[in-house]
TrEMBL record:
GO terms for biological process: cytokinetic process. Pfam families: SPOR. One of its GO terms (molecular function) is peptidoglycan binding. This is Sporulation domain-containing protein. InterPro entries: Cell_div_SPOR-domain (IPR052521), SPOR-like_dom (IPR007730), SPOR-like_sf (IPR036680). Residues 83-124 are annotated as: Disordered. Residues 97-115 have a biased composition (Low complexity). Residues 124-204 form the SPOR domain. PANTHER family: CELL DIVISION PROTEIN DEDD (PTHR38687:SF1), CELL DIVISION PROTEIN DEDD-RELATED (PTHR38687). GO terms for cellular component: cell division site; cell septum. It comes from the Bacteria.
């Protein structure tokens, strides 16, 4: 005790130091010597966190309880099925559907005009002279090539001058039905059926050759085109294929005749 009285300051410092060390150890280990143990069978209450600023909690509702999901309303995309028609008695004849009648004052949909169907065109005569036109060409060489191709397939072909072009026609047929069948077989050429014989020229042409061989006519056409003379058309009525230049205006007729003669052609005027 004498030593304690003489060295009490040192003892006090040591005690304070020891308490500090013990407090640090307890703090680091998480041990609370002053905490009282809850009695057996009793669960300690769980603290409820205070609501954040601006939030309110309704009385009797747990703040941490999840909010109830709102019900989802499903909107059907398809219209509801119409009510079933009343059943007809067995053995009754089926009812005819009622004709759709527009309501009074209702207008036709935009872009559509309600009109009565046109009357059927009267049928033409079934017999006579019919031909099928399969093309008209400004270049007579194209008309000549098509004529040669169709003749090789067994068709009777004519070449007809129509203004400045040469028309290729298949026929003649004495019945419209035969012409229709030929047009169906030649559908790739966009055929057109016409009635009557080949028309006679109504304008003036200058004939520069008449041949029985298509190849000879082709050579003459090429010679004219090489010299810049034209337009050139063809008339083919078997066995003769004729090469014509024109149509020619009256004021140009004399000059064109002179030019053709100078080029070595024999010229015959065709009207």
């Amino acid at each position: 005790m004498r030593w304690l009285r003489e060295n009490w300051i040192d003892a006090l410092i040591f005690a304070v130091f020891a308490v500090t060390v013990v407090g640090i150890v307890l703090f680091l280990t998480g041990v609370n010597p002053f905490k009282t143990k809850a009695p057996s069978g009793v669960t300690a209450p769980v603290p409820i966190a205070a609501p954040a600023q601006g939030e309110t909690t309704a009385p009797g509702v747990d703040a941490e309880a999840p909010a109830a999901e709102e019900p989802v309303t499903v909107v059907p995309l398809l219209p509801e099925a119409p009510e079933a028609a009343p059943e007809e008695p067995a053995g009754a004849p089926p009812a005819e559907p009622a004709a759709a009648t527009p309501a009074a004052g209702s207008a036709a949909p935009a872009g559509r005009t309600e009109t009565a169907p046109p009357p059927a065109a009267p049928a033409g005569p079934e017999t006579g002279i019919f031909r099928v036109s399969v093309g008209a060409f400004g270049n007579p060489l194209n008309a000549l090539a098509l004529a040669q191709k169709l003749e090789a397939q067994g068709y009777a072909v004519r070449l007809e001058p129509v203004g400045r072009v040469t028309r290729v026609a298949v026929g003649p047929f004495t019945r419209r039905g035969d012409a229709v069948q030929a047009a169906e077989r030649l559908a790739d050429y966009e055929p057109q059926i016409y009635r009557g014989d080949s028309p006679e020229p109504t304008q003036t042409y200058l004939q520069v050759g008449a041949f029985k061989q298509l190849a000879s006519a082709e050579a003459t056409v090429r010679a004219l085109r090489d010299q810049g003379i034209g337009p050139v058309v063809l008339q083919y009525r078997k066995p003769w294929i004729k090469v014509w230049v024109g149509p020619v205006a009256p004021e140009q007729l004399a000059a064109l005749k002179r030019r053709l003669v100078e080029a070595g052609f024999e010229v015959v005027e065709v009207r």
